[in-house]
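Below is the record:
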Amino acid sequence: MAGRALAAGLLAVCIVWAPAVARAGPAPAAAQAATPRPVPPPRVTADAAVLIDAATGTVLWSKNAGQSRAPASTTKMMTALLALELGNPDDIVTVSANAVNTEGSNAHLRAGERIALGELLEALLIKSANDAAVAIAEHLAGTTAAFADLMNARAAELGLLATHFVNPHGLTHPNHYASAYDLALLARAAMTYPTFAALVKSPTGTMTGLSPDETAFVRRLRNTNRLLLAYDWVDGVKTGTTNAAGNCLVASGTRGGQRLIAVVLHSDNRWGDAIQMLEYGYAAYRFVSAAQAGQLVRTVRVAGARSPHLGLIADRSLTVPVPAAEADRVRIDITVTPTPRAPATSGQPLGKLTLRLGEQSLGQVELVAARAAPRAPWWWFPLRLIGSV
């Protein structure tokens, strides 16, 4: 009976309608028979745009997404990412005259002020301060040119193929560009850092520091992303505006535990475009959960082990977006190593779980040993036969 219940559990796929609560198991017959109404695609004013699922990076909708364009202050996502990866938030940064003289949006920095790197990050991501971007770049790399080299190296690591940086703030330069898709990938990577995610969803903030005469100061910061106050489920990310770039926005929304990222470049209505794209994603897709990290998926018999029954667990969670009209066709395939033999180590891969739509693989996780299964000593089996163990 226990084995039958486990098998039934493995066949059940959890399908989540955001923002509805996750629902496990197959839908009722009436729901299964209903055909979801087609959701019309977004009609945006942006010259380039893309919508992705943050968990998997899957593109849900796009318009000229691979086209390189001026990114304006969305550049600062990379500046912040490098600050988090290469710096220490408690590092004290001395503001240079070069940083103070940077044009555009600013945090009113003054030469000689000493400010913690973490405080400058607030000014960078909340106020979109160009002077803070230069101060961070000079602190981490000495010059903005050297910092741009770090930015481009990190962009290559992230697979940002249509992107090249020249400065840390995004002011217009012919060799400074990015695509909507690359910016979505950059936001996806940066949002995995809790400090970044917390700052970009904050409507307001403060920056503290010491003036050259050792006087403490506090400056109030207001987020440039208007969506944060208008929608409680919007949680980021970054605005950008220059004459060349137009109005740009990288927006993030989370419903039912599922985060989507929308990017719009050179938009006549960046707020409306972004919300329309995010709403489309939640209406047009279901989020299908095949496994949770550490979930028991199957029990196998390990030949030659003292305790032959070994549980296999998912090594990570797997949830993927599926077009609503196709969700009923999703299935789970499980393959296990034929006749595994002892010894087996904890965490050893012994199978795979694959989520499929027809013959297409939507994602896969390793099934690993939940514990070690050491080889039984030679005398174990005779004693077991006579019932002594």
In short: The chain has two domains: 48-287, 292-369. Residues 286 and 322 are 5 Å apart (CA to CA).
